[in-house]
Amino acid sequence: MDVGRPIEAELDGEPAHRGAHHVQSLERGLAVIKAFHAGAAELTLSDVARATGLTRAAARRFLLTLTDLGYVRTDGKYFSLTARVLELGYSYLSSMTLPEVAQPHLERLSAEVHESSSVSVLEGTDIVYVARVAVSRIMTVSINVGTRFPAYATSMGHVLLAGLSAAELEAYFVVARLDRLTERTVTAPDRLRAELAKVTAQGWAMVDQELEEGLRSVAAPIRNRTGRVVAAVNLSTHASRTTAESVEKNLVPPLLETARAIEADLAVGAPGRAHG
């Protein structure tokens, strides 16, 4: 499944609403790195130029510079990222209290219900996993910390989108691509808005096989001290062994309890306090 998105072609021109401080070469270098994703782990020079909107000459300079710095490798034709790119995200993740606080709670939750659990945050139009406990692999795509999925097709994404302000949500719909990933994927903006309103009213979200056939998941919001939704926690299971009714009855209550426990620990900065 292709979970990446092409970089906008505006990179060739002067981006709109940029200040005089804007360093376009930095933006373009990051765009080259972001051109690689799960569905395009190896790219040719032409692939990178097409994905970023850069000329072949410019794409080549950025790729060779990234190769010199150790972030990209090449066999002369194909380019791919190296593990060194993880350094770019490590500083952010290591400075966060959320993964440290959430991990022991996820471990307890998964041990209790025997399902995989995760925590993610919203970044652009995607969710990004920041903590995870996997009980079994139920997706064709391996999920790790740093994995991204489109928010509109995931339970955690629905929770995070429902937590946006009206202006932020409108901005999301302007830029989001609602592609059909399965026969069940909600791609109509009005239907998605209605679903998000339901999530706000009930306090949790369920997504049934919209991201991938057979995957059913449920998520709850994690709020900061001011009440703003800053993350989401979920449980995922295979549709063949659970019904939507059983998920709501058996998984939602412990999930909500876990969300509240994570919130409590975030408020005091104490990692992994028992549920009490």
UniProtKB/TrEMBL annotation:
Name of a matching Pfam family: HTH_IclR
Q: Which InterPro entries match?
A: GAF-like_dom_sf (IPR029016), HTH_MetabolicPath_Reg (IPR050707), PcaR_PcaU (IPR012794), Tscrpt_reg_IclR_C (IPR014757), Tscrpt_reg_IclR_N (IPR005471), WH-like_DNA-bd_sf (IPR036388), WH_DNA-bd_sf (IPR036390)
Q: Which UniProt keywords apply?
A: DNA-binding, Glycerol metabolism, Transcription, Transcription regulation
Q: Name one GO molecular function term.
A: DNA binding
Q: Which superkingdom?
A: Bacteria
Q: Where is the HTH iclR-type domain?
A: 23-83
* Annotated ranges, domain IclR-ED: 84-268
Q: Which SMART domains match?
A: HTH_ICLR
Task: Name its GO BP terms in alphabetical order.
Answer: 3,4-dihydroxybenzoate metabolic process; glycerol metabolic process; negative regulation of DNA-templated transcription; positive regulation of DNA-templated transcription
Entry function: May be an activator protein for the gylABX operon.
Return the protein name.
Glycerol operon regulatory protein
Q: State the organism of origin.
A: Amycolatopsis vastitatis
The taxonomic lineage of its organism, from the top, reads: Bacteria, Bacillati, Actinomycetota, Actinomycetes, Pseudonocardiales
